[in-house]
Structures are given as C-alpha cells and as structure tokens.
Design brief:
Rossmann fold, six-stranded mixed beta sheet, three-stranded antiparallel beta sheet, 10 helices, cell membrane, von Willebrand factor type A
Length: 331
C-alpha cells in the first residue's frame, strides 16, 4: 500500500503499533461484560437465527481501529513524488558537403575514398542526437541530397544511395559551399556548421570558393574542411578492354584553398591520409561541435494527507453512527 510513498513525519507511523493493543483491550472488555439475564443452558436458543445486528456487533470496533490507523498515517504526511529533467539544447544545424567526383574512387582508402567517407559520415550521424543535419553532394555541379532533418534514418538511407557518377564530373568547391549556405542561411540555430570533404582542386562551377566562404562567414556559418588522400600517389581503378586495371595517380589536393576557407569562417582544416585518420577527424569535429545541453532536475511532492484524513474521519463517523443509532443498546 505504501509503495512509492514517502512520509514527512515517518516517526508517527510507530503509533500504528498501538492498534493491536487497542484491539486486545476491546476484546478483553467484551469478555468482562456481565449479562442482564442468566440461563443455565443456551440450547433453548439454538434454532434462533442470528440477526443482522448481531452479525455486525464487532463492526464499530473494526471501523474505529481502521479510522484511527488512517488518521495516524495522515499525520505522518504521506507524499508521492514526480521527478524528471528539463533539457535545454543550444541547437546545431550541420550541412555535410561531400565530394562525389570520379577521383573519390581512388583506393588509398578501403574500399575507396567515397565509401570510406560514407562510413565515417554514417558514424558521425549516429553520434548526434538533437541536431538537424543536411547532406549536399558535389562534383562538377552540386545539389542537395537531403535537406536539414532530425530523421537520421532517412538521412542515412540517402547517404547510402550516393555513388560516383551521379553528377557531371569535376570539382566545384565554390558551388558546393554556396549550396550548403543555402541550406543553413535561414536557420535559427545557435550554431551553423558545414563539413566539406574533398580530394581535389577546384576546377568547375561558377562561384569562386573564397567568395562562397566569405558569404558563409556573413551568415555566421563555420566551415570545417577535410582533404582526403594519401601523400604522393594513390591506386586508381581504370576500366580497360581486359577488365579493371589499377594505376598509380598523383594525389592533388588544394590544401591552401581549404585552409583559407576554414580560416575565413572560423573553422579548421584537416588532412586525412587513411581510414583511421578520417574517422579521428570526424570524431574531433563531433567533439568540437557537440550540442550543449543544460539539464535541470526537478522533484515535486504531492501531499496525500487530505485523502487519508478524510478516509479516517469517514470511518470514525460511520462507527459513531452505527454505535449510537443502528446498533445502540436498548435501555
């Protein structure tokens, strides 16, 4: 009965130990009552049915004990508590901008740069809980694969569908940044972030990357840039009449441009030369841009005194009514 109930005056409950004594006292008093008429035998009344008043003779005493018990519990001030947490999130909107040009098929990452990037981005998405994330892909052009959303399942499904060749080949970094800015510029989030991953040199698009970065800076968007590719040369699969042949090709990443973009917007540039390093980079970005959460715990008490006191009074009033009226003794 007292599960999930706490008592403000718990010591008062010790008075419940008096109830067995009161019951014992009542029973002893009944044994000491002297009958008004003495009979040598009760066989004469053996076939007389017991009336309802006789059946209820002990009910007032029982009600009195229950009423006193309920009042003792009431004065112990029973309480139930509701508790929880108010969570206030700062809110971060993130645009993930991914290069899907042909060079992302190079196999210095396993199985290749594009699939390695998709795996790491998928892990990054799984690590977020309260942030809206969008996905922009680019090659010679750029388009939005997924607008800002908190439906991470949909986002991961769209990420899995990305493949090289979806867009005309090339590397339009400026267009990609501009597309990401369009996703974030109207955001009311406290923090707006773009993570741009590429393995090449800007050679396509109508928008200069530095100009696009300056526009991003005007809208308060911070850009983290990630250059993907091993140092020197990397194996690249070429289709030939005799099947796929791998040939070493030079790794060309415009690191100066990527550093400039991140510096303009207050972000940071990273260079990934392996699957492990790429994963570490996204882990670092995840820590840098983790949603700030303020948790306020609360605990509210609900007093149950009234219900127990009311129940006790009703029991005592019922006992009094039975004793003084319905079951009263004749003079």
């Amino acid at each position: 009965m007292f599960k999930d109930i706490e008592f403000a005056n718990q010591w008062i409950l010790y008075l419940l130990l008096l109830l067995p004594l009161l019951f014992y006292s009542y029973w002893k008093r009944r044994d000491n009552y002297s009958p008004s008429i003495l009979f040598s035998s009760l066989k004469l009344f053996g076939d007389v049915p017991r009336g309802i008043k006789e059946r209820l003779v002990h009910l007032p005493a029982l009600l009195r004990l229950l009423g006193i018990g309920a009042l003792i519990v009431a004065f112990a001030r029973p309480q139930t508590f509701s508790s929880g947490e108010n969570i206030y999130t700062e809110g971060i909107d993130i645009a993930i901008v991914l290069d899907v040009s042909g060079s992302m098929l190079a196999e210095d990452f396993k199985p290749n740069r594009l699939e390695a990037a998709k795996n790491v981005i998928g892990d990054f998405i799984r690590g977020r809980t309260n942030d809206r994330i969008g996905l922009v892909i680019f090659a010679g052009e750029s388009f939005t694969q997924c607008p800002l959303t908190i439906d991470y399942n949909v986002l991961r499904n769209l990420l899995a569908e990305i493949k090289s060749g979806m867009i005309q080949d090339g590397t339009a970094i400026g267009n990609a940044i501009a597309n990401g800015v369009n996703r974030l510029k109207d955001s009311n989030a406290k923090s707006k972030v773009m993570i741009l991953l590429t393995d090449g040199v800007n050679n396509a698009g109508e928008i200069d990357p530095v100009t696009a970065a300056q526009i991003a800076q005007k809208f308060g968007i911070r850009i983290y840039t990630v250059g993907v590719g091993s140092l020197g040369q990397a194996p690249y699969p070429f289709q030939t009449p005799f099947g796929i042949r791998r040939q070493m090709v030079p790794v060309e990443i415009d690191e100066n441009l990527l550093k400039q973009i991140s510096e303009i917007t207050g972000g940071k540039y990273f260079r990934a030369t392996s699957n492990r390093k790429l994963a570490e980079i996204y882990e670092e970005i995840d820590k840098l841009e983790k949603t700030k959460v303020e948790v306020t715990s609360y605990r509210h008490a609900k007093e149950l005194f009234f219900f127990w006191a009311l129940g006790g009074l009703i029991l005592l009033l019922t006992e009094f009514s039975l004793e003084k009226f319905y079951l009263r003794k004749l003079p």
